Amino acid sequence: MAGKIKNNPTKERSLGKIMLAVFIPFIFLGVLAWVALTLSGMNVSKEVGKAASAIPGLSTITSSNEAESTGDTSDRLEAALANKEAEINQLKQEASDKESLMEEKDRQILQLQADLEEASQPSVQEEEAEDSVKDLALSFREMDAEDAAPILQEMNQDKAVLVLKEITNKERGTILGAMESAAAAEIAVRLMDE
């Protein structure tokens, strides 16, 4: 009996060595083939799944895994689609808001341009004031300097300056010469400032 026990472990060891010598190269070749096919662009997992579904015992296992992965993929794609649609709606709203803002700014620009044109055109009152100053200046041209000087001295200095601007330099000089020196000096300074 002791001889039988000794023979069994050696047989088992030799059988294990044979199996290791056969299976390890097959496993290595399988991994090597997997890597090579993956690098060549083939989806090895999918192909193995198809081959496994053809085997009767494995077909139930692989089909349930495919159904789960298809369902997960579908759910993820639907969620991604919903997120993108929400993002599109948000961008449309932002574009609409910016378009409204641009329209409001365009209206403001048009209003400011209209206000600028209105402000640049002399008003009827300003034109009438200019005409009355010219008429008054014509009257002072026809007066003697001794008569015009006291009148201009008593006038508002702004208006006196406007009137003196409308007459010639020679007439202006004779009128200023006929005025009191302090009043003439103030008006002369104002004429130079304008």
Automatic annotation (TrEMBL):
Residues 74-108 form a coiled coil. Keywords: Coiled coil, Membrane, Transmembrane, Transmembrane helix. SUPFAM superfamilies: MgtE N-terminal domain-like. The chain crosses the membrane at residues 20-37. This is Magnesium transporter MgtE intracellular domain-containing protein. The lineage of its organism: Bacteria, Bacillati, Bacillota, Bacilli, Bacillales.
